[in-house]
Amino acid sequence: MAKLTHQNQELVRQLDLRKQRHEQNIKEWAQSQEEERNVELENQSRGTASRRVPHLEREIDQMRRVMDKMRENVRKTNPVKDLVHKTDLPFVASINAHHLPPKFKMPPLDSYDGTRDPFDHIATFKTTMHLQGVPDEIICRAFPTTLKGPARVWFSKIPPNTVTSFEELSKLFVNNFIGGQRHKRSSSSLLTIEQGENESLRSFIMRFNKDALVVDEVDDKLLLVAFYKLMCGKVLVEKVRRFISIDCGASSDYLDEGTGIFYKSDSGFIDTGTNNDISPEYYSSMVSPNYVRQIKNLRSFSQGTKNCYTLKPEQGKSSNYLIRAFFFYGNYDNKNQPPKFDVYVGGNFWTTVGSSELYQLYPPWETFPDIIHVPLSDTIFVCLINTGSGIPFISALELRPLSKSIYPTNFGALSFGSRLDIGTSSHMGLIRYEDDVYDRLWLSRSTLLNWVPINTSSVINTQDSNDSYQLPAQVLRTAVQPPSGHNALTYVSSYGTNNPCNGDKYYVCFHFAEIAKPTQGKKREFIIDVEGGNYTSEPITLEYLKPLSICPQNGQPFEGHFSFSINATMESGLPPSSMQLSTIV
User: Fold this and answer.
1) Which residues sit opposite 133 in a β-bridge?
2) pTM exceeding 0.90
């Protein structure tokens, strides 16, 4: 309002100056004309004729009439009243006639010129006005004082007597200046924030908080995930960024809230195939809730014998990758006949989907084989091959970079991995990312044979450990030990000749953590025996709550029937315990 008053005063001052100059000019001109007339009269008295006297009299009379009219117009003109009328011009009479509250004071706001977000300006203006409790009519009349430049020009062009409320005025305002609207940011954008190379942690956190404040419709769960990734450091965030996760058959990309992993649709990875949804009655038939969203749809390939996904990981060739496919039939075609087809990776056979003997660990129609693959080129092709026994399909495809120091092998790819979290209270559950930084899948098992499960709630620090396998702490906090009176954990595969653990070759890793603190004066020492003496380790002693992984034979595979025993040494005062198992054919 102060700004409006100042404008009125300036206009009055300019009009007064213009009036004074004009009256002065008229006065000087009239005086000169009067002098000229006197000269003419003097000449007439002397007998000199003048042809200009009638003409001059007519001009003087005309000028007097013009000057009188200008004086009358100035008396009738009220510049302040005209300016107020022009400002209120778009509003209806009820708004223009509303009296200004006696204690009303226009709050200081940055003037809007049409270049910023109109929603932000409206929101700020309404907040400040509502704090004073003023009615809608005053809000309408006060709003133009916050405009300048092009925005002020726009307001002056609104047709008179058309605006009946501030809501209506707001809509006109936003529709006209929508081009300046700020681009909305989603909560998932926070997951892309990375710490600069020379940026301090304090500066990084401040920048994260600042970006979080401008997010529209903040998702609290997503915000916690993003901040957790931030506090876990750049290593964890970098691993997620390098993941390739495809939800086959999905219509768009999304962030999986359960894992914090971005899943992409098939677009950009394959051009063939069609998207399908499984039958709803199979939504609850999966192994774990970790893949609820991914199993609801799939991509099928009715055309062509060979359909391939193209993966281009950032690390390129000669790196270690865990590739996992997920197949869930779910009677999507209403035929109730799961197909059988082959899958190849990098031109080499990987697996046959639909072979029930191969996947006895899992419920019918659901398989998720994985393979550890070292490609010879920067591009990896995963191909589904129609063998004439039904239409190939796939539910999800995932690639996870691994450290080159884990799962060393000298005989090609490692497939059909089975990772058992032994000693848990649950059965058939899955542990994966974020518990496992490599997103390996750990199948929970309470025990094998007559082993006794044990667990601890103590913290196992996997980050400071020299164990590069980085098992999830949740896996390491559960284990098994022999029954009372026994000094060995013995296992002989009994799944039959077609089980992966009884293939021609297999690769095995044992993972330990001492979670039962030895009593004073006693130690736990043991040796590992695989295939009845084919491999025997040196005596092993564990440190309390410190992980240890042992993959025998330095990458060389075992052959034949899978069996092992973990035996206490003669010097050990305690039986062996605290074991987890990974087997890969």
Assistant:
1) none
2) no
Distance separating alpha carbons of residues 515 and 457, to the nearest angstrom:
9
Structural domain containing residue 135: 88-180
Per-residue pLDDT of the chain (585 residues; tens, 9 = 90+): 455 455 556 665 666 676 666 666 666 666 666 666 665 556 555 554 444 455 566 666 777 776 676 666 655 554 444 444 444 468 998 898 888 887 788 878 888 988 888 888 888 898 888 888 888 998 998 899 999 988 898 998 899 889 999 999 988 898 888 765 555 566 666 666 666 666 665 666 677 777 776 665 656 656 666 665 555 544 445 556 689 999 999 999 988 877 878 899 999 999 999 999 998 887 765 545 677 788 889 999 999 999 999 999 999 998 999 999 999 888 899 998 899 999 999 889 999 998 543 333 344 445 788 999 999 999 999 999 999 999 999 999 999 999 888 887 766 688 867 788 888 876 556 888 878 889 998 888 777 777 888 889 888 877 666 788 989 888 999 888 898 888 899 888 764 444 444 456 788 889 998 888 888 778 889 999 998 778 899 999 988 888 999 988 776 788 877 888 999 998 888 888 766 666 665
Do 263 and 319 fall into the same domain?
yes
- What phi and psi values does residue 196 have, to the nearest 5 degrees? -65, 160
Same domain, 330 and 262: yes
Domain boundary among 82, 116, 147: 82
Q: Do 430 and 514 contact (CB within 8 A), yes or no?
A: no
Last residue of a domain, one of 17, 52, 82: 82
The two three-digit tokens of residue 245, written as one number? 């996760």
* DSSP per-residue codes, 38-52: HHHHHHHHTT---SS
Report d(CA 240, CA 261) in Å as an integer.
Answer: 7
Sign of the torsion formed by the C-alpha atoms of 9, 15, 17 and 20: negative
Close Cβ partners of 324 (under 8 Å, ≥ 6 residues apart): 368, 369, 370, 371, 397, 398, 399, 400, 441
Q: Are residues 68 and 116 in the same domain?
A: no
Tell me how far apart the terminal alpha carbons of the chain are, to the nearest angstrom: 82
